[in-house]
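Appendix B. Raw example, untouched.
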Amino acid sequence: MLRVRDLTRSFREGSRIHHVLSGAQVDIRTGESVAIVGRSGAGKSTLLHLIAGLESPDYGSILIDDFEMSTSGEPERTLYRRASIGFVYQFFNLIPTLDVVDNVRLVLELNGVRGAEARALSADMLARVGLGDRLRSAVDALSGGEQQRVAIARALVHRPKLVLADEPTGNLDAESGGEVQALLMSLTLERGATVILVTHDAALTQNVSRVLELREGRLHEHT
């Protein structure tokens, strides 16, 4: 269960205060798939970053099961995020100096899984996303769709309970985007994890259980 209460986040722009989130709140059940939509600049990415503990709110609470993300210190948030959250970014955020399998394996090693076990788990996850034959490829030798598949494998290899995806198909063509979206949803939901994705793509909202619109700093059920 993810429980967000009275979440507020503001930024200073010159002499003005810009209120991105103003009392946003929502409950998302374990295993739900949720799309968050809204105009550009509405605060969708900020909301994901707050849920992941990458930023801190000005006010409000974020409870993931029994972990209070919003009031925990940075070391505690980092350890929790590393073990329990998978993040898929629009621009992949792969490490160019590491090959495909090592980009995925790094997540396991940070969680204490090393050696042959980490390599086997990484190779298996890459096979699940259709890249079993590209383990030693340089990531910059892959297409955009293939790089996003690596990013999905990296986000899911440690079996997180919560997967956050920020415009996961925004940097892909329509065909590759559709394949990546289907892969992300199927691999996440088959494990019983919760997935929350931010998107401008109406097609991505067709295969989720709920759509929320972020408008004027608050979340609204979208029909």
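End of appendix B.
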